[in-house]
Amino acid sequence: MTEAAALSLTGVSKSYGPVCALAEVSLDVAGGRVHALLGENGAGKSTLMGIASGSTRPDEGTITVAGEPIAVLTTDRAARLGIAIVHQHPAVVSDMTVAENIRLAVPPERMPSGPPRIWMAELLRRVGADVRLQDRVADLGVAQKQLIELAKAIALEPKVLILDEPTAPLGAEQSEILFDQVRQATARGTAVVYITHRLAEVREIADEVTVLRDGRARGHAQVADLTDDEMLRMIVGRELASTFPDKLADPAGAKVALEVEGLSGEGFHDARLVAHHGEIVGLAGIVGNGQSEFLRALAGLRSSTGSIVLDGTRLRGRSLVDATAYMPADRHRESLLPAMSVRENAAVGALPSFAGGGVVSADRERSGVDAELAKLSVKTASRETNVMALSGGNQQKVVMARALLAAPRLLLADEPTQGVDVGARSEIYTIMRDISASGVPVVVVSSDAKELEGLCDRVVVFSRGHVVAELTGADVTEEKITGTVVNATTHRGAAPATREEPGARAARTPSDPRTRTPMADRLRDLARGDYAPSIVLALVILALGGYTFAHNVRFLAPFNLTSLLTLLTALAFISLGQTIVIMTGGIDLSVGPLAGLLVVIASFFVTDGKSPVLVVLAFVIMLVVAVASGLLNGVLIRFGGFTAVAATLTLYIGLQGVSLLLRPFQGGFISTSITDAITATVGFVPIAFLVAVVVAVGLELALRFTAWGRGLRAAGSNEGSARRLGVKVNRVHVLAYVGAAVLTFFGALLLMAQIGVGDPTQGVSYTLSSITAVVLGGASLAGGRGSFIGTLLGATLIQEVLNATTFLNLSQSWQYFFQGILILIAAAIYTRVRRRTPALA
Predict the structure, then answer these.
(1) Which pTM was predicted?
(2) How does pLDDT run across 185-208, given as a tens digit for each residue?
(3) d(CA 795, CA 386)
């Protein structure tokens, strides 16, 4: 009896509106074998694997895992069935550390019984990921993120392992480590689906191949039975006359266009380069050896010293930026504007050329963009199509269109064909050769020696930030490029001390002058971590308290401290709720009016002479109103298409209107027995304040060590990655608004006790104050980062400032001046610290 395939997809179809992504595709993947899946960008490979991994639901077809039909496959169920995927664009959460990313992806039952950090460190070592567990993923390079993605998949010990363009950002050495992991996996019986655009990798690693074209399966065969030309014909549906265009006949005889002498900066030192008109110059070297940093310096995007002369003119600073066009390696992070159309992405760098009198001409913009898109053969339904709907190759062409529309005098491209299919790659090579033939010199960084051989007239080799060789003419071959790179990296002595590049840690030795001390590493991590703002706030709180006490000893009187902490508690609860929402990347403008409305409701029932049952019922009604408000906010935002500002501002107005309708004027005095109970103290410390502290600590622990907390941070940091990791993003967002409303309910109880009367205007100020507290606490308004402890300290500082101005005999306007100054200082410090990569730390 034939053993059932580890994974079978039969008759799978998927459409997005009128676009058919897959049409009746079938695929069988056997255990212990590598099944290559080939096709051009947009052929349907990633969609098919999205269906196989549970992140995409098919319109038709069946999915069978180990002979068991699966009616509905979700990411959670796929993981339980032993299906793991390494995405082309890593499903990592940038605002979390490496260790937290692994914990988020690996179910608790898969974690070892021993110390998890030792296990995670060994896991990273196995895949060649040269990172620390405490490193924040946002600070890592694309290659290291890809290796973390691989480590997460291997940790699951899957029965089916899907690798989607896994080597696109990797160097040769890292690719070999990946291939070794694939071989080990198949030896254990794992079925591997390997998506790639590189036929050499298919030859090296795959047993059989299936080709998709235009959403349909166009062929299946054993790799050994196909030639490269046959595979290419299956992929593109036509003959490719040549992958690479003809090179310049005599580049040395052309006029020098670019001359670089003694260029030094972070990651490279004393580098030189010459490029003639009509010439394409390649920069080679193992990833992290300074070639990409050198390219950024040529673009004016990295500070440097030395000489850069273009067409006889020495350029520096802004003049260098204006004269060059730079295409980064990570187009999704650094180049594309994901919320904008193809037209907007292409035109954004050339808007001045389309403008007259400072106003952009729509007709000139459209005609210019259309002409460039046609010249580059960009395949898109419309110029107004969202750029993220295009295939990788066409996205890269849009990036090129932007560069060309800017009419640069120098084109700089870092890994220009990364993640691009063979057909589009050939077109990009031709475009780059046409650009160089027009007189614009082109400098290219590539980790693919075969690409450098076929494309470039001259290749400059980097090692440890230095130019160690220059190859021209007949010497520009894959063998000589690779040999020079390997020998230079192996035998060249240590370069002068430079700041460490991401991924360079493995090359360090204890005597290396770049090696940091453990204390320096800990201080750097602390400065970049989520608790640095808390430390700063604590110091500011102590300093302000000491200064105020020195001018007025009554500041620390028990009565004042009790009053200050009581007022603080209301703000603390509401601010903690605001933190939950801001962690998702949202904002809740309705918390202030909600607190006011809850106090107004209480003023009708929580009064002297009312029965205990009615008082309890009033509290229940207040809680229900709060939950309903949070639920309404969440539903409007996640399912109603409202932005967070629009939805919560609408509710802000509505809640305030209801409050004024119920209580046009102050009225309904709250029972003193209730207010006394709520404001009860232990010594001079209100019990409610102690409860707020416990809640803040509990939320902080949950944020760091529970699935809820990791899901909250993941959803706020990168919603797409969070979905692929199985986080229920919609539920996380809706519950965040509900959680904020519940904490606002507790804040309203304190507000009720403070003012003792139904007043519809008293809660409004808490909206701005709560946001201020969260920002002071170091949370990112973009989501994903923050601290409940920081928020508590932020609220403390706000209340202390309000209190201190009274004791310092300052006018009320100083309260706002101080708050504004504090926010500006905090934003400046935190932004600067967090933007600095480890290489700059």
Answers:
(1) 0.73
(2) 999 999 999 998 778 889 999 999
(3) 41
